[in-house]
Design a protein that fits this description.
This is Alanine-glyoxylate transaminase / serine-glyoxylate transaminase / serine-pyruvate transaminase. By secondary structure, this protein is an alpha/beta fold. About 40% of the residues lie in helices and about 15% in strands. The N and C termini lie far apart (about 55 Å).
Length: about 400
Amino acid sequence: MTTSFYPPQRTLMGPGPSDVHPRVLAALSRPTIGHLDPEFIRMMDEVKQMLQYAFKTESPLTMPISAPGSAGMEACFVNLVEPGDKVIVCQNGVFGGRMKENVERFGGTAIMVEDDWGKPVDPAKVKAAFAAHSDVKILAFVHAETSTGVLSDAKTLCQIAQHHGALTIVDTVTSLGGSELDVDGWGVDAVYSGTQKCLSCPPGISPISFNQRAIEVIEKRQTKTPSWFLDQKLVMGYWGGGAKRAYHHTAPVNALYAFHESLVMLEEEGLENAWARHRHHHNALRDGLEAMGIGFLVEEPYRLPQLNSVFVPEGIDEAEVRSRLLADYSLEIGAGLGALAGKVWRIGLMGAACNKKNVLLCLSALENTLSAMGADIPTGKAIAAAQAVYNAN
């Protein structure tokens, strides 16, 4: 007979999901009410307002999609791309490739701008792509590439698109709440994210926002949006302002309680303070890893503090290390993807998992495990190097 499932207690320091804060977990267990209940609608309005704060936007079409971050990505493309549209897609990792897939599935033409994995999107290549192709409708790129841990210059890329009269679609799944993001200030037209990274929330919700330029494009579509569920003209009837809402779908009530709580916590900490916290603990982790002789894939100026891709020491089975960390320390770190598989680990410092205790646990567990496996690394230096960062602040 099947019994209830009780998951083990893990420390999640991979590429996501991240540790969920106890306050957010507690919010999940609150009584379920109807998704058209006046109190739930009041909470929805608060979610929208706090999400506008997190994105730094005043756009009214800012809301959580009732599905994971991949659905947020699809919502942006399915509403803005029509058959025959030209879309410049920047790929410097896995998720730029998924953007290309979306463009092509909805009948658009993807004009690829490619950079090496671990490098940021090159603005000069984007300018060249615009110069070579007329009538480009959209520039799409990943702000924080989860597969490599590289941060691209979203402000500059958006300025290039604006100069050519193109919209922008920006993936901020790993940057929202962890790195500087200014949707209105940078002129981002359509943006999507996820709850399971720096917001310390369970996966399953995708925050999105469309500005007025994007809304006008949606309203003037020549073809019907191919997805009923993700059609923003329909969803806005439910997520629009005011107490009167049109039924669209049964919202994930308790998951939205959790998301509300995570946004409350972000407001309490302060957006800039959250960015600074991620940077601070990254600095300690960085110094500890480098003292151990472990190097980073991404150069310092472009490195995401919340997602650290680091090279596996020579002669070490990276999968065996991850297995031992999970078995011996209940600690999860991530593997490399694509061409980086077997070559790097991805160590996350996101949301509630971004703290001193986890940094020191990760360094100690990794040093002990690598030493036991015969890795040629300096020992006894990593913790001291990280502590020096903490003592200096």
